[in-house]
Structure formats: structure tokens, C-alpha cells
Amino acid sequence: MKYNATGGDALSLISIYEISKILGSSLDLEKTLHDVLNLLSSYLQMRRGVVALQGEGGKDIRILAASGLSRRAVMDGQCGFPPAVIDRVIGSGVPMVVGNAVTDPAFENYLSHADAEAGDVISVIAVPIKINGESAGLLSIEREWESDLQFKFETDVRFLTMVANLIGQTVRMHHSVANDRDRLMREKVALEKRLREDLQGVDGEDLAIGNIIGDSKAMRRVFAEIQQVAPTRSTVLLRGESGTGKELIARAVHTLSPRVDKPFIKVNCAALPETLLESELFGHEKGAFTGATQDRKGRFEQAAGGTLFLDEIGEISASFQAKLLRVLQEGEFERVGGNKTLHVDFRLVCATNKNLEAAVAAGEFRADLYYRINVVPVFLPPLRDRKEDIPALVEHFLARFNEENGRSLDIASDAMGVFQHCHFPGNVRELENCVNRVATMTRGDVIEDVDLPCQRDQCLSSVLWQERADASGMPVGGMAPMEARRQRVPLSAVSGARPSSPGEAPMRRSPPAAAVPPIAPVEAPADDHLLDDDYEDGGGLTPRERLVAAMEKSGWVQAKAARMLGLTPRQIGYALKKYNIEVKRL
């Protein structure tokens, strides 16, 4: 059938409306353009439509859609639309109308492919697709006309120009989305790479915080968390064993925050009884109690606009927890002996070496206060989990000792190796004390391994960090190592320290369980030298000591201990009974 006119204004308006819906319905550009051409084929009775677009940068012009052909066929180049026509329309930026393309040599192959019949008058109307005012593509349709009709193409050109403008806006939107997606992906990859480098010790200068020493993966993770949380107002809870440097990290949070020019106030909650702690934090009015001769601002008021650091917050009493909760929730309080409500703005940083979760479960710590302070928890690693930082810490403490005492001590590599292989249950604080003690007692200018107390069986720390007498496996003086708390194993199994037996000198050391020398297997318990009371191995350990060390290393599983010592489970059981060793149930 042959058509001789474009639809009326109503039909054109409906077509524009439907095309706009199609263009906004999908981010699949090629599918969208195919749907637009199919709609044009229905509304304009065209024989074929083509959409060609330039790639970004004005290169790689290719046909993206052609009605009557599948997307695969278009990709395979089966459309055959003349490239010269595409270049001409895009280059000139003006529409092109070919009244009878059948007689135009440029369309010979294309119309032949379109199965034009002899005598047909097929017109081609092509308009440029403009993006940001620049021609970047082409929209073309074919129309079949009566041969003796006076052609008037103005309506078709105007209509197709509107469609081409809609396509141009859609293509620009797709390019923008694609560019944003690529940019975000590049940023994501860059951030992930930087994070991996940060955690692997690369580009360490960017993560270093003040005078906090540490370049290990564990400390770099802490530095990254601190730098992220410091600029905010969120409450920070520092978790970690005693001696891991929680106060230094708290000060770093303040220094890196917008409150750096305001006060940094610190309070040790465990150092004061409840009555004094209340006055210390809230302040008091004159005459509130005996000795209150004048008004006194509390630490909350002193920290106004700045940061308040509450150390050992897990040690406060239940009654004081309720008083503290109100201040943290409402930001208001009254001084002791006063009735005027004061409002204060401060950033709270708390620290504890206590297992707060266990305390909440046991009813020793209020759950609502726990949720109030546990907004952003930061876990500080124990020194045994970042042994690669020990050399730098030793050098730092030794340099400070030299400066304070007017000496010029150096440390030998073998002595540094001893430091690196110690577990230091007291963490950085214990390491600092050890360095100062060794430096003080060293007579020469170089600290050798023989100068370290542990090399002469004179280390007192092993006495302090023994497991408790109640066999709970928890150390004296703070949080146990994470492994011991998680598995409930004695500290000696983690740190290498060995509890003393009744009547045994507390200064005697035993090597870590990993270093337990093997015992040659024997056929019968009666002949086993492990059972000989007068036997000692080359490391100076009695059979009982070697057996206890092996049991601790194996988690008190007799079968594992037997394999470690090269004995049978029956021989292990016999030895345990002989030396009256109670098997611990974990």
C-alpha cells in the first residue's frame, strides 16, 4: 500500500508522547532506539528507520538500531545504510531529503536490500541527532509515495527533528550515567586499593597519628578507624587490654576532631570513690558538703566544647551509672548540692579493659548505658598481635631514656630479638618498663641479650601474670588475652608463662609450649623415662613440667598431648595419675 501524507497534528502529538515514554523507560539504549523505530513504523507508515550515533570523542560512527532487523543483524552490519549519507548529515548538521532514493546511486545497495519494487518512489528523510548543540548522530526513515504527487516534506522533517531532539537528550543522559558509573567504579577501585595498601603497610606516612608508634597491619586498621570517626560527634568506646595505649588514642581522636582548640579533659573512673567521682564530674556548690568552701566546676563543664575522656568506665558503680546516663542522653545535669540545671556540649570518649558484654549479662553494667557509650567501638590490639612494632617501640623508649638520663645506650640485634619474642602480657606499658629497667642496669654502652632479666631467670612479670589460684585461667590485673577469654585456657598456654607448683620457686621459667621437646616413645609405661622422677631433659625441665606444658599446648586433650610427646594415650593417662595432675575441663 502506498501513502501520500503524514498523519495530522493529533497523530503527531500522540507519537511524541509515546516516544517520550519509551525513551524514559529503560537504560538499554539500543533496545530503546529499536522500540522508537518500531513505533515510528506504525505511526508514520515508514518502510524502514535507521539510527546511527558517534562514539564519545566523535569517533566510531555506527548504526545502533534499524527497524526490520534484529540487534544481532545490526551489529553484524546487515543494515547497509550508506556511510556517505551519515557523514554528510552529521557533518552539515542539517536535514537531508532525497525525493526518489531509488535513482540515487548512493542508496543503490541499501534499497536493493530493502526489496524496492520497480517503479516505486521511495523518499529518504534524514535529520541530525544533536547532543549539546553538536551533531552526533542521524535519524533516517524511508517513505513510499505516489510517483505523480507533489512532495511536501516540511511536516515530516519538523516531526522527525523533534524525535531526534528527544533521542539526543536520551543519549546525553545515557552518556552521563555511564560516565558517572565509570567514575564511581574508578573511585571504588582506587579506594579499595588504597585501603589494601594502608592495611599492608604501604604509604604509612598518610595514616600515622601524632606520636603513636605503629606500622603493623593491626595498628594501621586502628589509625584508619580513628581518622574516619574523629571528625564526627559520635561517642567512641576504646576497647583493649591494659597498657595498649587507650589514652593516646583518645587524645588522637580529640586532636583530629574540629574540637582540637577546645579542652581535652580526662578522668580515671577507677581512681576515685563514687562520692568523689560525682563531685569531680558534676562539680559542687558552696556548702554542699564539709570542705566545699566555694563553687567548683566539674569535668563536664570544663570539657564544654571539647572532649571528655572517661577511662576505666567499666569500673563505675551501678548507682553512678544511672546518674551518668542522664548526662549522656540529655546533655544536662546539676552540680552536687545545687538545683540549677546546666547544659553542656562535649564529645565523649570512653575506654575500658573490662568485658562489658559479660558485665551487662551479669547485671553489673546497665544495658542502656552500654548502648549509649558503645556507638563506635575501636579495638586496640595487644602487643603480641603486632610484634612487628616492637623494634620501633624499643628504639623510642631507649631514645627517651637516653635523653632523660644523659646516656647513649644502643641495643644489639640479639637483644632486640629477645624483645620481639616476648609476649608482654602488660603490652606497651610493660615493654616500656622492661626497656627502662634493662637500660638502667646495663653497665656498658650496648644492651646485649644477657642484660635482659628473662635471660637470667630474673623476670618478675611472670609472677604477676600467672593464672589465678581458682583455675579460671584469667590473669591478674585486667583483661585476659583474647585467646584465653575465648577458649578459657590458662594464660600460660597463650603467653608462655608457667604457673608455679606448691613449694616451687616462682622465679623459674618454662619455655613456651610450642618449644616442648619431644619425648621418645617407649613400649611400656614402666620403662618410660618420662615417669622417672630424677629425669631432666636438656632444657632443664622435669618430666612433670614437660607433661604440663604439653597438656596446656594441646588444650588438655590427652590424645593430642600423646602425639606431641610421641607416647600413647595410655602412657599419658598413667603419667597424669603418677604426678597427680588434675585434667582441666575446658
From TrEMBL:
Q: Where is this region: Disordered?
A: 492-541
Question: Carries keyword Transcription regulation?
Answer: yes
Composition bias (Low complexity) maps to 504-513
Is tRNA-binding tagged as a keyword? no
Cite the SMART domains for this sequence: AAA, GAF
| Keywords from the named record | Activator, ATP-binding, DNA-binding, Nitrogen fixation, Nucleotide-binding, Transcription, Transcription regulation, Two-component regulatory system
**Residue span(s) of domain Sigma-54 factor interaction:** 212-440
**Cited InterPro entries:** AAA+_ATPase (IPR003593), AAA_lid_NorR (IPR058031), GAF (IPR003018), GAF-like_dom_sf (IPR029016), HTH_Fis (IPR002197), Nif-specific_regulatory_prot (IPR010113), P-loop_NTPase (IPR027417), Sigma_54_int (IPR002078)
MF annotations from Gene Ontology? ATP binding; DNA-binding transcription factor activity; sequence-specific DNA binding
Q: For this chain's UniProt record, which GO biological process terms are given?
A: nitrogen fixation; phosphorelay signal transduction system
Against Gene3D superfamilies, the record matches this protein to: 1.10.8.60, 3.30.450.40, Homeodomain-like (1.10.10.60), P-loop containing nucleotide triphosphate hydrolases (3.40.50.300)
On subunit structure and binding partners, the annotation says: Interacts with sigma-54.
Describe the task this protein carries out: Required for activation of most nif operons, which are directly involved in nitrogen fixation.
What's this protein's name? Nif-specific regulatory protein
Q: Which organism is it from?
A: Caenispirillum salinarum AK4
Biological classification of the source: Bacteria, Pseudomonadati, Pseudomonadota, Alphaproteobacteria, Rhodospirillales
